[in-house]
Amino acid sequence: MGKDIQFSLMYRDMWQSSGKYMPRVDQLVRIAPVIIDMGCFSRVETNGGGFEQINLLFGENPNKSVRAWTQPFNDVGIKTHMLERALNGIRMSPVPADIRKLMFKVKKKQGTDIARSFDGLNDERNIIDSITYAKAGGMIAQGTLSLTYSKVHTVDYYIELASKLIDHGADEICLKDMAGIGRPVSLGKIVEGIKASYPEVIIQYHGHSGPGFAPVSILEVARAGADIIDVGMEPLSWGTAHVDLLTAHAILKDAGFNVPDINMKAYMEARSLTQEFIDDFLGYYINPKNRMMNSLLIGPGLPGGMMGSLMADLENNLASLNKWMAKRNKPEITQDQLLIKLFEEVEYIWPKLGYPPLVTPYSQYVKNVALMNVIQMYKGKERWSMIADNIWDMILGKSGKLPGKLDEEIVELAKAQGREFYTGRPQDLYPDNLDVFRKEMADNNWDLGEDEEELMELAMHPEQYRAYKSGAAKQAFEEDLAKRKAEKEGASQVTATPVATTSVTPPVNYQPKSMNIEINGEKFKVAVSYDENEAPVETKSPALNGSAKEEISAANGSAKEVLAPVEGKFFRTKNASEKGVNTGDFVKVGDIIGYIESMKVYNAITSEITGKVVEVCHADGDDVEEDDALIKIV
After folding, report:
1. Long-range contacts of the stretch 551-557 (C-beta < 8 A, 24+)
2. Tens digits of per-residue pLDDT, 603-615?
3. Could you give the angle at the alpha carbon of 363 between the alpha carbons of 484 and 563, nearest 5°?
4. What 3 state SS string does 375-423 have?
């Protein structure tokens, strides 16, 4: 009898590698018993990654979802596991230690057994912190190697990293081949090297289909001693997702391994339910190209886990770019042209950025820089002209140590902008902050939740949680889904009723109906009423003061505008420590006037004009298109 091999179903990652959203909790609890009936899984990935955030985005409570979804597996002894990003927890930016610690305690209480902790830079300091916090919270700590292929990511590099994690308490090791570009023989050597020193440590292999190496990699790591293989299942296997259970099972059985039998009736039922969920609403967020394997991914090495969101982002960026091209009588660009340009740019800039492993969030960072470079160069501008603060934090060492050396061009760019490099422990830059959110819960009379899970959710995803509590998230999701359904059903020709926010240059005697004001840091939208008999302002009056002249100058169109370089959501600040720009403020060239949240990062927008702000054109959270005016300056 050959070695036993177990399977883990990546039901969470299957969806997020294919598109944007996950099934609702009512759908998850329907499919859970069917997955159990398949009889071949010792583990199921239930949450983590973007699961909690996605629930908030479509207006559901992620804590209730996790508890209900994990319970059936807990009841029958199938271990559940989650993905978390070490310093970044279950979001895209660094998380204070007290919030990270609470997350592990909450997730264990909710029914999650194993924490798969990875760091996008493979900085062992960040992963070791997670191992310590996970074990303190009662979870099994699975230290993770983020696999990629470069001259610095060698077999010995990964064996050494695994040794450090095990020596600091990791219960298990995961080989996370998120882009599926790990070369099969090398992966086998990594497993063999780890098992030589730690034969009792469980090794779990996670690979994406992507460029096509994954079936061979499964065989190689199994022969080298891997214990558990992550798999997907139809209709969401292959493409940017994972090798299908049936294929992995057949390969390993033929090679002499002892693998559990599959209840094919239950497999087909689970397949049918998954398709039902796709047809219900999730299919509107899945790009058909994500269902295809693509050997072009070998070059850029972008992971399957982000290809779903990448294609969605690409649609929006392409539309904005082509709108810009059309205004200037330039030929439109196809999606394939933009995609190939993007892949080429990723290959070009990746070594210059120090070879960060292309895994969340750093795969998004590298992709975002590449995409911004491509877009800016199409517009005749320079490379590196838009780098978000989150990305600078990675470059400067604030998220961890880069595996490779930064290109001198990037170093000089940082110096020119007055940025300083950091070599200390990353967690030290993000002091404990849980009490701030505890106070916000109290001020709003919000329940802390069972095991303080609601507090954890607010602290981990503050903006999304507030939008969930207000109902804005659910409303936005339902509007977006309705729009997508209408477009698919051919209803897009119906002209929407014009709204009052149409951008029209106001007349000289323009009288606004509402204003956005800020008092002691709190934002209010107020109505403005006028005396019906009040005469309009006489624009030629010599008694006008400087402020009135500036307002008239703005109304007459002589004010200069700072334009949005990319579409997204506008925010004047990105955290409570910043002071947003206001009407009347004086700004200089290079000053930050706001941020646009696009492609999961906040892009700082700097002024190219010196002068006095006479209008802030958008409220926080407003959607802006590329080339929309953000502020007006005289």
Report:
1. 551/614, 552/508, 553/614, 553/634, 554/614, 554/615, 554/632, 554/634, 555/505, 555/506, 555/507, 555/508, 555/510, 556/508, 557/505
2. 888 888 899 999 9
3. 60
4. HHHHCCCCCCCCCCHHHHHHHHCCCCCCCCCCCHHHHHHHHHCCCCCCC
Q: What is the mean pLDDT of residues 347-376?
A: 88
Is the backbone of residue 354 left (phi > 0), alpha (psi -120 to 50) or beta?
left
What is the Cα–Cα distance from 183 to 467, expressed in whole angstroms?
Answer: 43
- Provide the token pair at 404: 């490779």
- Start-to-end C-alpha separation, the chain: 81
Burial tier of 69 (Cβ tally within 10 Å: 0-12, 13-18, 19+):
buried
* Pairwise CA distance, residues 15 & 310, whole Å: 14
Using 50, 70 and 90 to split pLDDT, how confident is the model at 546? very low
Q: Residue 307's pLDDT is what?
A: 60
C-alpha distances in angstroms, 410 versus 301, 305, 442?
21, 27, 45
The arithmetic mean of pLDDT across residues 473-480, rounded, is 93
Integer-rounded Cα Rg, in Å, for the chain is 26
Cα 47 to Cα 66: distance, rounded to the nearest angstrom:
7
Instruction: State the Cα torsion 557-558-560-565 to the nearest 10°.
Output: 30
Given a cut of 50, is residue 169 above it in pLDDT? yes
User: What type of residue sits at position 447?
Assistant: D
Burial of 458 (0-12, 13-18, 19+ CB in 10 A): buried
CA 112 – CA 619 distance, rounded (Å): 39
Residue pointed to by tokens 């509107």: 284
Residue type, 218: I
**Has this prediction a pTM greater than 0.90?**
no
What three-state secondary structure class fits 590? coil
Question: Would you tell me the crossing angle of helices 472-488 and 462-470 to the nearest 10 degrees?
Answer: 80
Tens-place pLDDT, residues 328-340? 899 998 988 888 8
Q: Identify the band that residue 576 occupies on the pLDDT scale cut at 50, 70 and 90.
A: low
Question: Which phi and psi (to 5°) does residue 129 adopt?
Answer: -60, -45
